[in-house]
Structure formats: C-alpha cells, structure tokens
C-alpha cells in the first residue's frame, strides 16, 4: 500500500503540487486540468490531510520529507517544477533549500514565509480548538476571512467548496499542520537559485500584497503578481488568471 495518496495526470516535464493548511490536492483541480496538457502533474495529500495518513514529524521539515517521499514513491528521476499554495509554499521553500537538485522552479500561490509571534500563538490556539471542538467554527471563520467579497457574493459555490475542504479534514491532522506552522523557521530564500513566481490576491489576509511583495524581493530570480477581487483561495477563486500566469512562467523556465 502506498504511503501517500498521489494522483498523476498528463505527460511532459514533471510538476509537484503541494497544498496548504485545510486543503487537499483537489485545491489544484483547475490547474491540473490546464497544465496536464503540457506537463505531468503529480498532486498529493500531505500526511494528515485528505487521503494520506498522519505520519512523520509534526514539523515543516517533516512535510518536506513527505514531499521527498512522494517523489521517491512515484519514481521521478529529474528536477520538478513545484506549484504550492499557502502552507505548501513554506514546504516548497524549504524543499528547494534541503534538496536543490530536486527542484527546477517554484510557483508560490498565496505565499507565506513564517508567522510572527502573534501568528504562532494563533496557530497553537487553532490546533487546540480543532482537537477540542472540531472544525465547524474554524471552517466558517476561514470562509469569512479567506475568500474575497466577490467570491462570497458572486461565486457562492467556491465559498461552499472552501468550507467543505475544511470540514472534511481529520481534526488531528489539521491540528498537527497548525502546530507545524507555529514552530516553523523562515526559509533563507535568498539562497534559492531556481526561478520563482509569487501570486497573491488583493484581498488575501493570509498573504497580504505588501508581505508577499517583500518575500518576492528576497528571491534572487522572481516575479510577483496580484490578482484583483481575490482572497487566499487563489487557485479556485481565480483559476483562469492563475493558470495563465503559471503556464507563461513555466514555458519560460530554461
């Protein structure tokens, strides 16, 4: 039995998708549909999310080890383009530093670096809440704060999809991911040599444009984009715009 739940679609150079806190590999559904025409798309559920068992270290390094385990499990023998969302962007940054020979480029959507002290305490509190009360109230808060006004008003199915993502998470796995973020160390992205693209929304409260822009500026080779009327669930709130940016970027990677 495979250790990680992985889905592979398409053919061409490999892409590894890494989802974020509260998500699963399905958050990249629109991207896989577009990119699999040109690339081999590997998307997996992080341990403790979706259909992957909760195993390994309860840290970002543990999630990096999971990503490396996925590459070994599927037998990828060349560097991969990494496309990541939210917490997955933290994993991707550390992956590029820990295993630079495995990474060809970085696409960081709703990018985050490392939380400040207030953010760390909030993550610890959320972990405790998930274990004690379940994910119902957390899901409602994430929909309210994590999606744009336009999404809530004009794309209610997307807002409902986000809530469903959260509600279907195993509470313990979700709590463990909160704790991984609460203890993570900021990656020294100035040492990442591969090209990177960072994309955020103008209403993203988790990856606000000033913070995302400052992070992009730390990379030696990066581009930065802000999408209008977009919250933190960028890949499904604005799939067409994300797909266009990612395809143009990947086609330009040497």
From TrEMBL:
GO terms for biological process: acylglycerol catabolic process. Residues 15-244 form the AB hydrolase-1 domain. Transmembrane segments: none annotated. The keyword Iron does not apply. InterPro entries: AB_hydrolase_1, AB_hydrolase_fold, AB_hydrolase_sf, Epox_hydrolase-like. Keywords: Hydrolase. The keyword Lipid biosynthesis does not apply. GO terms for molecular function: monoacylglycerol lipase activity. GO terms for cellular component: membrane. This is Alpha/beta fold hydrolase. It comes from Sphingomonas ginsenosidivorax.
